[in-house]
Each structure stands twice: as C-alpha cells, then as structure tokens.
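Continuing the batch. This is chain 6 of the set; chains 1 through 5 are on the previous pages. Same settings as before, nothing changed between runs. Recording input and output for traceability.
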Amino acid sequence: MYYRFFPFWRTFFEELGWGVKVSDGLGKTGKIIYFEDSCLPMKLLVTHAVSLKDQVDFLFVPRLVSLHRTFIMCPKFRGAPDILRLAGEGHLPIIDETIDLRTGRNALLQSFLRIGEKLGASNRESKRAFDKGEQSYAKFKKEWNDRINRLPVKDLFQLDIPTPSAKNFPPPLAGGDEGEGEINLFCPPPPSPSPIKGGGKGLGKTSLRVAFIGHPYNLFDPDINKHVLTLAKQLGIEILTPDHFSEKEIDRELSDLSKEIYWSSGREIVGALFHFLKGGVDGVVFLTSFKCGVDALLQEFIKRSLKIRKESTIPFLVLSFDEHTGREGLVTRLEAFKDIIESRKDSQVKV
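Output for chain 6:
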C-alpha cells in the first residue's frame, strides 16, 4: 500500500517531526530472504524490513484489515507485522496499528491518532498532521496521470520532484538523495534500466494508450515487475492505471455479477478491467505475481467473464511475475503485444 498512500503517510510523519527513510529495494545484493514459503510481495517485505532494522527507530507496518467500509484485504496484510517479528526474531521495532475502515466513519483518523500517541504527539498535533496528509494525498492523485507519463518511473514517488505539466514537459529529472530518517515506509526506488535494444520511441512520444492493472506492488515495484512500465514507455506507450477510480465507479462495473468479490483489491482489479475493456484504450495488461491466491482466482474469473460478455475486442495481456522472471522475455512479450495493437488499429483504419 506504499504505492497508494505514501504521500499521505510521509506528510503525516513529517508533520509530527519525524524523518522518513525509504528502503532501496533489494539493494546491491539483489537477494531475497526466503523466510517462509509465501507470495513474492511478502518475501520482499521481509527482505526490506530485515535490511533496515538497524537503521531506523520504527518500521511502519500497519495491520491492514480493510480499506473499504464493506470489503476486506487479503489476510497476508493483517498478518504482515507478525511475520516480520518472526523473521526478525522479535527485534524489529514495528508500528503495527490496525486499520479497519469497517469499524466506523472516522476509523482511519482514529488509527492515526493512536499512531501519533505512540510517537509522543497530542491528538491535536496528530489531527493536524492527518489533515495535511490528506491534502498531500489528494494533490498527488490529481496529478497522477501527468506524473506517471511525464516522469521516469523511478521518480514517481519521489515527492520532492514536482509533477511536470502537459504544457511544460521537461526532460526526465534525476532522483535526489532520499535522506536520512527514522520511519521506513518500504519504498524501493528502482535503478534506471538500460534502454531496450533496437531503440524505443522514448518518453513523451506516445501513440498507444494501454491500461496497466494489478495490485499496486505489481504495478510499481521494480523488484517484482522488472521495470515493465519503463519498458512500455520506451515503446511509445501512454500508461493508464485505475488509481483515479472511485468506489462508486468500481461498484457500477461489478453490479451485474452473480456473486460478490469480497477482496477489496480483487474488486478494484476486475472493475477496472471491465471499465477499460469497454473502450478508451488500445490494450489492457494485467500484472500478477506467482503464488498469489487472489490473482489466481481472478484470472480464471476474468477469462470466464470475458467469454460470457463477448463485448470486447481490445487486446488483453496477462503477465505473471516471480523472483525468476527475466527482463528479456518481458521485452519480447511487450513488443509482440504492441504489434498486435498496431495491427488491429491498422485493420480498423482500412475498414
């Protein structure tokens, strides 16, 4: 959830006077700690936490139960703090306040008031920091489409780098030092990947609009997706994500399903997919990570739903990642997908 709420989290902690230290992914070793036979994002979470345990005063790992008033998160989210304590043999200083929006209208605020109390802040100070965090988050979301298509992917969550406007499209900015801090929010800013062999069109010369859908860590964590968004931009693809969709829009897309999807992340993925497949984009890519139970069920559900609906001819690609996924194969699949999209557009023009 760092890839969704970091602007809010960082502002909240900094307003309370705490420095925020951001993790650097797998670092120079590139090795994952295999603490348990779990899904890839949980393995990465353990790796980040163990590598940072001696560098910070606290690790921020909230116990995420629900970020929706009705639906729940994957159980791995609520168990994450316990897994980290086992991996760190009880020596990891974790802030693991429970966040469950089903408990009331002000549930999120109450959770952060308790976090502030643990950090020595008064309720008044925490409430002010919370309000500032919400303002930062709203601004970040408003600028998201410009940010994702006009900044290098490695700089998307570098909040000190301003969002370029459509009228003033500067060259890619270099990311600055992340600085020292005391609270880790598990962000792995990726190193800049080398250009695709054969030459890409480069940032800013987009001609195809492709929606990328999946859990936020699959979309934005380079240790999982091998820089897939950077590769897509180098191929001249304009990227769309479902981050701006409201709960009402997702509910509307799922209103005719015969059964409810109870995982909030699953609802977002399927609702966004149905929305984009109706039009407005040239292609849709669904990013998944291997051994994710929710994604495995969603893939089968999506395939069956598309067969029943028969309403979309938009090219659809599923990319599944694990720790052994190679970058070269990913480039080949993206290039082939782009060729399919262009061939389809050419045939439509001829008709």
